[in-house]
What does this fold into?
Amino acid sequence: MIAESDKDLKRLNTLGLSAKAAWYAAPCSVRDIKELLNDSRFAAMQKLVLGSGSNTLFSGDYNGLVIHPAIKEISITEISDTTIKLKVGAGVDWDKFVAYCVDRGWGGVENLSGIPGCVGASPVQNIGAYGSEAKDTIELVDYIDISTCEERRITAAECRFGYRDSIFKQKLKGKTIITFVTFELALNPIINTTYADVKEMLSSTENPTLFDIRKAIIDIRTAKLPDPAEIANAGSFFKNPIVEESFAEKIKESNPTLRLYPSSPGYTKIPAAWLIEQCGFKGVRESNVGVHQNHALVLLAYEGATGRELLEFAQKIKRTVKARFSIDIDMEVNVTVSS
Ligand code: EPU
It folds into this structure.
């Protein structure tokens, strides 16, 4: 198993932050991952799993081993009259996987079109967009326990999925390398146009197909969200805060255009983008960092930005939102800390 030392990570994170890893490896199979974990050079070293780096903020250099799982296989594990199960390697590009399913008429992940990242990251933060979440189709997750090197398999129920949350961000945080995710997809797809933007975009399309949904969502995303290849960003920087319904309704009384989104009974999601925009940050640039002009939830890292600078700017936004609305907004991006 080849491992590189002193690896530059700038091109391996969509925020384009300069950082170096003491060691880096991209194992392509379960065997390679085990070989890497059993290598005596890395036994005592801290380890970080990095997918496509689209949700990672390097606060500085990483003094350990960065592992990029690059398993690319896709296999059918079961077919019934109504469903098909696919076991997908962690290193498969998420959107290529979505396109693969849409091309074959298999429904369930089309609303998650255009999300950057790879399949292995999808259960970690339960990626979600446009009325759908990864948890709706995930059936099983296979992973390797980093400390024992054992292969494990858990069910969707055991993953304890929540809004941008799972066991991999809680009890198993930093302890696993996800190798495969098994999805259950529908052979007779049900088209989901519940999200207002999607409904609007497809208002004149009769009986939209999976292709129509995919195209509409990619068009919506392209119009709103900056392409990391053009301007460095990590998608939504903060999570949408969940607050008591009565509290949100009070804010809405004096701000009738505010859109609220359903959460668990008695609670509602307030768009963090709206809160940040109200605080005057939309389109603002401070030194090498800023907030995108079309979407206030997207923080930008201009050339020369450091992770520390971006974190300080994020803290300032968080403090301002708290002072004005008494609401805490939490980061969605994962901040890497190295000892
Ligand atoms: N809004 C503003 N100002 C803005 C942008 C949006 O006030 O600058 C308001 C809009 O009016 C809208 C509301 O915020 O009513 C929600 O906006 P949007 O539909 O763009 O969704 P979001 O809540 O900002 C979430 C996800 C996105 C996902 C979209 C669509 C989170 C943290 N983000 O964003 O996911 O694509 O919904 O479902 O939940 C990501 O995680 O990286 C990501 C892009």
User: Anything to note?
Assistant: The chain has three domains: 3-67, 74-186, 232-336.
